[in-house]
Design brief:
Strand content: under 5%
Shape: rod-shaped
Distance between the termini: 115 Å
Order of helices and strands: HHHHEHEHHHHHHHHHHHHHH
Structural class: mainly alpha
Number of domains: 4
């Protein structure tokens, strides 16, 4: 990078021959404006850039052998550093550091030369029109792999645990609309970056639980062995298992909540938790109308009716109210009110006052307003029978026959 500074007449001749040289190379123009020395070796680099030729920038390692005339000075080191800074301003950077002549030759052969070959495969030989066959769209996977190898990406990835065939398959997965060579390289490099991150996460412990770590290790192994679809399937299966575990955990806690609310004698809370339990497996706006909710109502109603547990009937009453509150048509409203009347009647039979039985009669009458004789005669008949039974129980508690006369009129 150093060497003898170019003579003033040589610099003038070069600038005069290439009149647009300084316009194309602004960092060089600034250096000449500041009257800095440009060595002949440095001029070779600038002329290579001007003529759009391959420029290889290499730096000798501190341990590299030097010739007998090697005698660096502070000025020569400063000139080297400034030259590299000017090249960096032109987006040309240090390519490699070599430890000796053989090492330098190896790095050039495995890097820049292979890169040139890859470009020639894609763009055609230098001096050609660069036209490609009409049926060829974008660089091939083989061309991309050659370029990746030239840049050391392939070797680094293999050392990190990513198999060569996986990298080749990543290149094959590129969509045909990726036409530009550099764009294709960027896409594959990003894919490799993601694959290496997956492998690294699988090989090291994370702050997540043992289940997640086991899944990450499984996915990393599949990606390492070129089973990308298997890796995706492992993630989907793990997510499904986590979701199932989460649902089971929710249900366990909610069921315990039902027991605690039963101890608290809070029938409204019990009905609300039953609704939440059903919603875990049946996410809907109306879990109260899922068959499982009705099944739980039947359990509470049966428990209260057969085993004589009043609180179970109280919970069934609140569940029926929730069904009525979320009903969307006459059929659902009629059914909910009929279920409400049944639970109210069972509980009212056991109470000394007639309040529950009065509510029972009101519920069945409201149900009949929804279950009309013309529209649903069978449902109407069933509710009419339930209303008659409720009026009979209510009348049996009263003195006189006023309630029984009313009953006969309603039945007729």
């Amino acid at each position: 990078m150093t060497g003898a500074a170019a003579k003033a007449q040589s610099t003038k001749a070069i600038v005069g021959k290439y009149t647009d040289l300084l316009d194309k190379l602004p960092p060089l123009r600034r250096a000449l404006h500041d009257q800095l020395d440009i060595s002949y070796t440095q001029w070779e680099a600038w002329l290579a850039l001007y003529h759009d030729k391959l420029l290889l920038i290499a730096k000798a390692d501190d341990t590299a052998p030097r010739g007998p005339r090697f005698a660096p000075t502070a000025a020569s080191r400063a000139a080297q550093r400034m030259h590299l800074e000017r090249l960096s301003a032109f987006e040309r950077y240090l390519g490699c550091t070599f430890t000796g002549p053989d090492n330098l030759a190896k790095q050039i052969l495995s890097g820049a030369i292979l890169d040139l070959l890859a470009r020639e495969l894609v763009q055609g030989p230098a001096g050609s029109s660069g036209a490609r066959p009409q049926d060829k769209v974008g660089p091939t996977a083989d061309e991309l792999v050659v370029a990746l190898e030239s840049r050391g990406v392939l070797q680094t990835s293999e050392l990190a645990g990513l198999q060569r065939r996986t990298i080749i398959n990543l290149a094959h997965r590129l969509k045909p609309e990726v036409l530009d060579f550099e764009q294709a390289i960027r896409e594959v490099e990003r894919a490799i970056e993601f694959a290496l991150d997956v492998i690294a996460r699988g090989e090291r412990s994370t702050n997540d639980d043992a289940f997640v770590n086991a899944v990450l290790a499984q996915v990393a192994d599949k990606v390492r062995n070129d089973d990308l679809d298997g890796g995706a399937e492992a993630i989907d299966a793990a997510l499904a298992e986590l979701e199932a575990k989460h649902r089971r955990s929710q249900i366990v806690l909610l069921e315990e909540g039902v027991k605690v609310d039963t101890l608290r004698r809070d029938a409204v809370a019990v009905a609300r938790r039953i609704e939440m339990i059903v919603a875990v497996d049946h996410p809907t706006d109306r879990p109260t109308w899922v068959p499982e909710f009705r099944a739980r109502y039947d359990e509470f109603e049966t428990d209260g009716r057969v085993k004589g547990i009043n609180f179970s009937l109280a919970a069934a009453i609140q569940m029926a109210w929730r069904m009525h509150a979320t009903a969307c048509d006459a059929n659902e409203r009629g059914l909910a009110l009929n279920l409400l009347g049944n639970a109210l009647g069972r509980l009212g039979e056991r109470e000394s006052n007639a309040v529950r039985l009065e509510d029972t009669v009101a519920a069945f009458r409201a149900a009949l307003a929804e279950r009309t004789r013309v529209r649903v005669p069978l449902d109407w008949a069933a509710t009419q029978h339930d209303l008659g039974s409720a009026l009979w129980r209510l009348g049996d508690r009263e003195s006189g026959n006023a309630r029984l006369v009313l009953l006969s009129h309603e039945i007729l």
